[in-house]
Amino acid sequence: MLKKSKQIFFTIMAVLIGGFIAIQFIPYGRNHTNPPVTGEPEWSSPEVRELAERACYDCHSNETIWPWYSHVYPISAMVQHDVEKGREVLNYSEWDNTEREQATTERMIETISKNVMPLPYYLLIHPVAELSEVEQGRLINGLIESIGDDDGSLEAVDIEGDEEEDSGN
User: Fold this and answer.
1) What does the alpha-carbon distance between residue 43 and residue 60 come to, in Å, rounded to a whole number?
2) What is the pTM of this model?
């Protein structure tokens, strides 16, 4: 009885390992290209660019850093899909391309302020991409100052005063 259970266990393990190796030959998720940067926003400060780079650029630019796990299926397919969709919606590296429609400043602000982006599962393995509330405020203000909006209704707010209140000063 124990010998039969071991045999079943090893057969199942062999099938699972063999299946994992076999799916590595699926081609989707291996096209890890970074097209050339053709233009980016005129950032209001280096800090704003650094915050955007830290929190957004892996999916929303042509400067994606492809980690080792992005070469292992099925994770590679998920990463490839996220980068393709991210670049489609907003690509900081193709800012000068008047042919494409970028996300509006309002949509970027809403996405950042509601913690929709960066994606929660991305933050699990990239904790440096998580922005504090003050950093989010600086990024939002920087986006308003750097990119602006269509109707001029957005204004940057003084977050330094909020920071002093938070620290008890």
Assistant:
1) 15
2) 0.72
**Rounded Cα distance, 138 and 160, in Å:** 9
Q: What is the pLDDT along the chain (169 residues), one digit of tens a residue?
A: 678 888 888 888 888 888 777 767 666 656 778 889 988 888 989 999 999 999 999 999 999 988 888 888 888 888 888 999 999 888 989 887 555 566 777 888 888 888 888 888 889 889 999 999 999 989 988 988 888 765 565 665 655 555 444 445 4
Cβ-contact 92, 52 below 8 angstroms? yes
Return the SS3 of 94: strand
Burial of 104 from C-beta contacts in 10 A (0-12 / 13-18 / 19+): middle
Q: Provide the 10 A C-beta neighbour count for residue 97.
A: 12
Distance CA 27, CA 140 (A): 38
